[in-house]
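Why should sequence recovery work at all? Because a backbone constrains its sequence more than one might expect. Tight turns favour small or flexible residues, buried strands favour hydrophobic ones, and helices have their own preferences. The token representation captures these environments compactly. In the example below, the structure is given first.
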């Protein structure tokens, strides 16, 4: 009884709030409230055949992608944007871990886990990593790793150049901005492997495309991608 009472006492002083809607969390709710969990805009792309998966189609003719997956649809001014903001700018890495674990479990239930040998997050440049203190894609990779029971590595890929923000660039500019900035840091770790490449948000897909191309060129067997959210074009 005492631990539960103590937890209630602590939450009276420091009320835990939902990371998506900022409402207080109920007992047993884990970072995201039940209402939000029920109402998040899930893509369910893993349930679609490839030809009907709009995310998969965006990579056609650019780079071969085995599974193109995104947990949520990115909608401005809603819960998803709030979650991503908490993750990236408020240091709430639990957002990545919780969503990664939920999604990983769902993908495992759908039978996808045997298609992945290694989970690799899109890396930040070391200077940005030092400034922010964490890579927002790492926590998502870590959560996915738990849910899928597939190992992850933060050091397989490296970002060699510090690039400008992608935010105000169009598709071609974004591609040119990232096309040559990634390299495989540990070729032995990825040769012959089926890699699940992960990032927080997919907008044009240029970053994931650049990473996938580098991984495949270095000898990885196939690449799948998964993001927390993807924006419509
Ligand atoms: Zn909520």
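From this structural description, the recovered sequence reads:
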């Amino acid at each position: 009884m005492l631990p539960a009472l103590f937890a209630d006492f602590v939450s009276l002083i420091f009320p835990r709030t939902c990371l998506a809607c900022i409402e207080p969390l109920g007992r047993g709710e884990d970072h995201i409230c039940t209402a939000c969990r029920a109402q998040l805009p899930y893509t369910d792309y893993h349930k679609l055949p490839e030809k009907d998966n709009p995310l998969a189609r965006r990579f056609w003719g650019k780079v071969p992608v085995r599974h193109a997956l995104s947990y949520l649809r990115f909608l401005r001014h809603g819960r998803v944007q709030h979650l991503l903001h908490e993750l990236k700018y408020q240091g709430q890495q639990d957002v990545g871990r919780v969503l990664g674990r939920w999604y990983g479990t769902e993908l495992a239930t759908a039978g996808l886990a045997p298609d992945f040998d290694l989970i690799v997050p899109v890396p930040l440049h070391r200077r940005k990593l030092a400034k922010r203190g964490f890579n927002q894609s790492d926590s998502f990779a870590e959560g996915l790793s738990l849910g899928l029971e597939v190992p992850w590595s933060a050091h397989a890929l490296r970002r060699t150049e510090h690039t400008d923000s992608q935010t105000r660039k169009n598709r071609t500019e974004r591609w040119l901005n990232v096309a040559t900035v990634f390299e495989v840091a540990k070729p032995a770790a990825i040769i012959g492997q089926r890699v699940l490449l992960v990032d927080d948000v997919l907008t044009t897909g240029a970053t994931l495309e650049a990473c996938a191309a580098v991984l495949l060129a270095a000898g990885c067997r196939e690449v799948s991608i998964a993001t927390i959210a993807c924006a419509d074009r």
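A few observations help interpret the result. The chain has a mean pLDDT of 90.
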